[in-house]
Design a protein that fits this description.
Elements (H helix, E strand, L loop, with lengths): L19 E2 L29 E2 L7 H16 L4 H15 L22 H4 L2 H5 L1 H13 L9 H9 L11 H12 L9 E2 L6 E2 L5 H11 L17 H10 L9 H4 L4 E3 L9 E5 L2 E5 L4 E4 L8 E4 L5 E4 L3
Antiparallel strand pairs: 1-2, 3-4, 5-10, 6-7, 6-10, 7-8, 8-9
Helix pairs in contact: 1-2, 1-5, 2-6, 2-7, 6-8, 8-9
């Protein structure tokens, strides 16, 4: 389902009008996978009440459904960015309406997330907003490196929409809804800080860039292997494999990769760009100030500061 626009959600917040309180949902925290960004899921026996104030363009049922998505995300240990991804998908799939109908592409799709019969549970489970939300978040947890992906890239990895960038148009709206419910600024959903690692991963501009970054970040700590193309790598082997995981072919060595894509300047650099600080080395940019790379024999894949000079190339557009 492709709903119409929900309107400028960031503008019309009516202070404390029609607060909706979610009852306690008996959802325990999941274990065994990373839920909060780059950290362990927080323990929660249930979901504390979430107030969702009235927002222009949303009726009471839509607000209640948004609050359910947020509350389930909180119970499972997802931070505000993860919760925003959940709301973004629900907006994009159903307009936050628990619809009992599918479409031509998925006639059996149902509920907030338009989950299909195969693999997403019974009809009753798909039509229950809390259960459907938990199913979505559980699927997101199974996406390796989702925390480093762009929001739409992470959503697409779960939903497999025909357009990998489909959900981008709903991210700002979702951020406004989550900010309204949690009191945290919408900007908190834009970037992820991996506290366990020295690098900060920013939201990638494309799904391919996000997937490449996720591939590299998932291999932090692996030892360098000269000439390695997997499962251990050298510097260019890592960047080649990272982009191959996203379906983008680049050259094998640094001398070929420095010709791939298009040149960008230092102030134009985005996550996913390649940085060549010298002719024999390449790093993968993860934010405006950091890059991940496989330095040399005796070292491991790690993140370091992004320098001011060198050659920068954009291979994912």
């Amino acid at each position: 389902m492709t709903p119409g626009s929900l309107g400028a959600l960031g503008v019309g917040v009516f202070a404390l009008a029609f607060p909706l309180t979610l009852a306690m949902l008996g959802l325990g925290a999941t274990t065994g996978s990373t839920a909060a960004a780059c950290g362990a899921p927080s323990a929660a026996a249930g979901v504390e009440a979430v107030n969702v104030r009235a927002v222009a363009g949303l009726n009471a049922d839509q607000l209640h459904n948004a609050g359910t998505v947020i509350a389930v995300g909180q119970a499972m240990g997802f931070d505000v960015r993860g919760q925003t991804i959940g709301v973004m998908v629900a907006i994009g799939e159903s307009g936050l309406v628990n619809i009992d109908v599918g479409d031509a592409a998925g006639p059996d799709s149902r509920g907030l997330f338009q989950q299909r019969a195969e693999g997403w549970g019974t009809y009753a489970e798909r039509m229950d907003p809390a259960t459907a939300s938990r199913s979505f978040y559980q699927a997101l947890q199974r996406v390796n490196g989702w925390e480093a992906m762009s929001p739409t890239g992470a959503a697409h990895a779960v939903q497999r929409n025909a357009d990998p960038n489909y959900y981008t148009r709903y991210f700002a709206e979702a951020g406004a809804v989550v900010a309204n419910a949690t009191g945290q600024p919408a900007e908190a959903a834009v970037a992820v800080t991996c506290a366990a690692e020295p690098g900060q991963v920013a939201s990638a501009p494309t799904a391919a860039a996000g997937a490449a970054i996720a591939f590299a970040m998932a291999r932090l700590g692996q030892p360098y292997q000269f000439g390695g193309t997997g499962p251990l790598y050298d510097c260019s082997g890592l960047t080649q494999a990272a982009y191959a995981s996203a379906g983008v072919a680049i050259a094998r060595d640094t001398y070929g990769q420095v010709l791939d894509g298009v040149a960008v300047t230092r102030d134009q650099v985005q996550p996913g760009d390649l940085w060549f600080p010298n002719p024999g080395h390449v790093e993968l940019v993860i934010s405006a100030t950091q890059a991940v790379h496989d330095p040399h024999t005796g070292d491991v894949i790690r993140t370091d500061a992004l320098g001011p000079v060198g050659i920068f190339r954009r291979v994912a557009q």
